[in-house]
Design goal:
Strand order of the largest sheet: 11-12-13-10-4-14
CATH topology of the largest domain: Gyrase A, domain 2
Oligomer: single chain
Structural class: alpha+beta
Number of domains: 2
Number of strands: 14
Number of helices: 8
Helix content: 25-40%
CATH class of the largest domain: Alpha Beta
Order of helices and strands: EHEEHEEHEEEHEEHHEEEHEH
Largest sheet: 6 strands, mixed
């Protein structure tokens, strides 16, 4: 097996910002990720009391598109459940997030991505009318963890009614700091924000700015895995 080097690892578009913030970088599941920012204990306390901001760009991101009936069939085959527009379902090693009946995003931890990708690809072979696209490298992901998550999202959204009136778990396309995003609200204290890689740095900076009064700080993969594993 060839050695793992920085050149063979996948890199987040947010890597320069997390390094500037003092992250200790490590190789995990084929990615170079921020393990911690010098004080894992402090980061754990932050997620208990304020808001932790994490780079989650290593998440696997698969897009399912097609006829609504075919998409529903494929998701049901993989999960044993159903996800309606605006909903999110945690099952079979991933969050299944419905933008609409014809459009579902599957999010998986980096360690589960290959298995989920294989399962989705195999199911799609037998489900005419559904196309599967791997968006892992095209979308950045930012995680928010802690009791201040909802207040921070509301501030970033400009108190948009569509955000306030939706109970988690939920998934929606919206604007945060005037930047187009897709937002998974896994719970009142856990969220994942997806955006194009070209907008990721701007969104990260806006979240830092908006979170100053909410006790926001940076958290690494070690604490994310403890407080908010994407899948159980």
């Amino acid at each position: 097996m060839p050695p793992v080097t920085p050149a063979t690892l996948a890199h987040s578009p947010l890597e320069p910002l997390v390094q500037k913030a003092g992250a200790t970088m490590v190789a995990r599941n084929g990615w170079l990720v921020a393990a911690h920012y010098g004080s894992p204990g402090g980061e754990m306390a932050l997620c208990d009391q304020g808001v932790g901001l994490a780079d989650r760009s290593d998440l696997g991101k698969l897009e399912l598109r097609g006829d609504a009936e075919a998409v529903e069939q494929l998701v049901g085959q993989l999960t044993g459940g159903q996800v309606l527009s605006g909903e999110a379902l945690l099952a079979a090693g991933a969050w299944w997030c419905a933008v609409s009946g014809e459009h579902v995003i599957a999010l998986s931890d980096a360690g589960q991505t290959e298995r989920v990708r294989s399962a989705v690809g195999e199911a799609a072979r037998w489900t005419p009318g559904v196309t599967v696209t791997d968006l892992t490298a095209r979308l950045a992901a930012l995680g928010l963890l802690g009791p201040g998550t909802e207040d921070l999202l509301e501030e970033l959204s400009g108190a948009r009614p569509a955000l306030r009136n939706v109970e988690p778990p939920a998934f929606q396309s919206t604007l945060l700091a005037a930047i187009p995003v897709m937002l998974l609200r896994a719970s009142a204290t856990r969220a994942v924000v997806l955006t194009d890689t070209g907008r990721a740095a701007g969104l990260w900076t806006e979240i830092e700015r908006a979170g100053r009064d909410a006790g926001l700080g940076h958290v690494g993969a070690d604490v994310v895995a403890h407080f908010s594993p994407l899948v159980s």
